[in-house]
Amino acid sequence: MNDARPTRDAIVATARESIARGSKSFAAASMLFDPATRQRAWLLYAWCRRCDDIVDGQDHGHAMSHVADAPARVAEVAAMTEVAMAGEVVGDPAFDALRIVAAETRMPPAFARDLVAGFALDAEEWRPRSEDDLYRYCYHVAGVVGCMMAVVMGVDPEDAETLDRACDLGIAFQLANIARDLCEDDIAGRCYLPDDWLTEIDVPPGEHMKPHYRPRLAMLANRMARRAAAFEASAREGTPALSFRSAWAVLAAAGIYGAIGREVAARGERAWDARVSTTGAAKIGFIARAGIEALQRARRYPRTVRDADLWQRPRVGS
Fold first, then answer.
1. Measuring CA to CA, which of 72, 97, 119, 145 is 20 to 30 A from 302?
2. pLDDT tens per residue across span 171-186
3. Domains in the chain and their CATH numbers?
4. Are 48 and 84 spatial neighbours (Cβ–Cβ below 8 Å)?
């Protein structure tokens, strides 16, 4: 561990560079936050991105490669995360970013641990057998990040209902990512389609990306897009609990990522010929529409009873 304490400004600057390199969509949405929330969002992103890069041998989410010592890498991430959550200097800017976020908010340590548990699933070369397994994975790698972002935005960690909606948005994002990235994941030896789904359409394990299975795979991508849309719709009902600017950012991100899932479904069996992305012009359009939605969020998205059919995140401590 490094005893030198880097300045907050320096860590924020590094975090801003990280989000700019790692996710143009999140970087664009983050500019809608008020300055304090924006910086904390960058700091949280930097830690998430760094953990992912360490475990997967990536550089800001790019060039994922097989690593032989994945469990050891997860253990390293877990150890540094515990140090950061304890308020101690780690010496790695991304983990010190988490230290700052934890100190400035009431971030439950269990959330950080739940995300690390998601990295452990990948390190163990785990794959989902059922749809419930799929949602559990999505929670650990994205839904819990939604919960952490809600805390960054000022949501009380005891406000379980709003955190449920934040988790729903993270799950929606991850389902869209999985549908879009089936080819890249297959090259890396991963598959997040439940075994039950593949059995249902009579596709042998490990062969889902073969050309003659594309029409069947498109059916599953369409199903995943519909599931993502249901979680997204639920998440939107959490935005009245947020400040205007936070709601604006959340709704912009929901629009951008929702479009990715819908585009994958619309392309059918050609969805993986080229990576689905959102143009700069489209992002501007989503941001503009999200501003109007945020102003009208109480009327547009009145909170109803959350759909009992949607997967329920585990409660902290459970």
1. 145
2. 999 999 999 999 999 9
3. 1-106 (no CATH), 127-318 (1.10.600.10)
4. no
Could you give the angle at the alpha carbon of 170 between the alpha carbons of 179 and 35, nearest 5°? Answer: 125
How many Å from the N-terminal Cα to the C-terminal Cα in the chain?
32
> What was the pLDDT predicted at 251?
96
SS3 295: helix
Among the residue ranges 20-29, 92-101, 103-112, the one predicted with the least confidence is 20-29
* Separation of alpha carbons 93 and 264, rounded Å: 35
Count Cβ atoms within 10 A of the Cβ of residue 312 and give its class: 0-12 exposed, 13-18 middle, 19 or more buried.
exposed
pTM: predicted TM-score of the whole model, two decimal places: 0.92
| 8 Å CB contact between 222 and 141 | no
3-state secondary structure of 271: coil
Q: How many CB atoms lie within 10 A of CB 263?
A: 18
Tokens representing 206? 């490990």
Residues 6+ apart with CB under 8 A from 2: 89, 90, 91
pLDDT at 284: 92
